[in-house]
Amino acid sequence: MTEQVVTRFAPSPTGFLHIGGARTALFNWLFARGHGGKFLLRIEDTDRARSTPEATQAIIDGLAWLGLDHDGEIVSQFDRADRHRAVALEMLEKGRAFKCFSTQDEIQAFRDAAKAEGRSTLFVSPWRDADPSTFPDLPFVIRLKTPETGKTVIHDKVQGDVRIGNDQLDDMVLLRSDGTPVYMLAVVVDDHDMGVTHVIRGDDHLNNAARQMGIYEAMGWDLPVYAHIPLIHGGDGKKLSKRHGALGVEEYRDMGYPAAGMRNYLARLGWSHGDDEFFTDAQAQEWFSFDGMGKSPSRFDFKKLASISGQHIAAAENAALLHDLLDFMAVTGQPTPSDTKISLLSQAMPLLQERAKTYIELIEKAEFILADRPIAPDEKAAKFLDAVSLGILSELTPHLQNASWDRQALEGELNAFAEAREMKFGQLAGPLRAALAGRSATPSVFDMMFLLGREETLLRLQDVKGTA
RNA sequence: GGCCCGUUCGUCUAUCGGUUAGGACGCUAGGUUUUCAACCUAGAAAGAGGGGUUCGACUCCCCUACGGGCUGCCA
């Protein structure tokens, strides 16, 4: 019996939850869920100057929208500062850490000199092995006593074995001179205390892992399994930043991508399971493994997101899709449709969902249901409502008054009408579509008429009559 | 500067020494068509460069180039 898998997502609340962070969270979630484990959330708010409650909320909201549910209470790293401090002191006690009285100026001078002489700029503290009797009565930081020789090997599930010479690792600061813990200490202590078994994070932390392992070693704690995943780059290949397409997840939500499509697309970025492109959460959870992770950064591609997104909309179950669509409308500030319209939407959903890649497109194509009479045609639709077309429509009207109102019959009726006048069906369908929906992109005219019903259809034709 | 990681079609990727280097998105051409979407058919499109190892390298090793990361009393 192996121990239960515990993963965590540990963002710092210094801004919105961007797409790279979301993907990291996704992989942690997939791995935990796929192994019947726990997925924890910890907010790394030790940097008080940059952390904001708004950012914390944005992260929570973003994860909620993406459907990445976490287990247990959200841990605030800042709240655990006392514990971090205690661990640092314990290492000091054990002789695995030391007090360093060097000032920032002295350190800077050291680095400048090292750079000028072409030496390593890693700071070597003169206090590392100093006699306590020589300690001045000055502020000090506590630094980890890193081995000076040998190698640290990170057995990384994605990157393989990565060896770093200990001479490349400095005696990092654990506790600042004001007694507050730094991130490097806090992550390790928190991961250990939270029972995290697998640390899945961006590969920008790969080098940090070697440093952090020193703390595990000093404390005699078991190491977690590391998996450092490659980052996402922008469409131009450059690192993703706020200036380079790194949008908050809520922006993707507002662009109308369904969360399921987002999860699918994001999972496929840097990870693969053979040639599978479209899959469900259940499949992703079952399939996810570090073996499928690539090592190189990937670029975000909206075109492919749209394609995957469209497939998820098409495959969605009716009630769930309607629910998500209404959520989307609420979130983006659109009025909630009446019960009648919602009922029609539900009926029309099979027609709508296979022609939309986003909720925005879905709504555009549902305009014939959502709009109230009289329908205001958009520019493209208006072009179909010229005098000739209106003539055709008024000629058609009496035929509709008597037609039996089912899809099949309507199709027959309209085809016969067009055929009798030797016109291409498009000459009839265009104006009809414009009159019924006020849009040029809609479901089939037969479907719209059937759904709208005879009365509403005739009223809309009536509305349009004098507009030319 | 030092250390670490990476590099297959435009993009996401498959391949885990032997393939006509496969798929997806996008693109191009044609078809279907009532708009949009969808769909069908066809097509263009890739192993960064150079050395090895091997009967045989996209695959293993080395070098170079390029990209990225770390090198903080940031996370």
From TrEMBL:
Keywords: Aminoacyl-tRNA synthetase, ATP-binding, Cytoplasm, Ligase, Nucleotide-binding, Protein biosynthesis. ATP binds at residue 242. Coiled coil: none annotated. Residues 329-463 form the Aminoacyl-tRNA synthetase class I anticodon-binding domain. GO terms for molecular function: ATP binding; glutamate-tRNA ligase activity; tRNA binding; zinc ion binding. It catalyses: tRNA(Glu) + L-glutamate + ATP = L-glutamyl-tRNA(Glu) + AMP + diphosphate. The keyword Nucleotidyltransferase does not apply. It is found in: Cytoplasm. One of its GO terms (cellular component) is cytosol. Catalyzes the attachment of glutamate to tRNA(Glu) in a two-step reaction: glutamate is first activated by ATP to form Glu-AMP and then transferred to the acceptor end of tRNA(Glu). This is Glutamate--tRNA ligase. It comes from Pseudooceanicola spongiae.
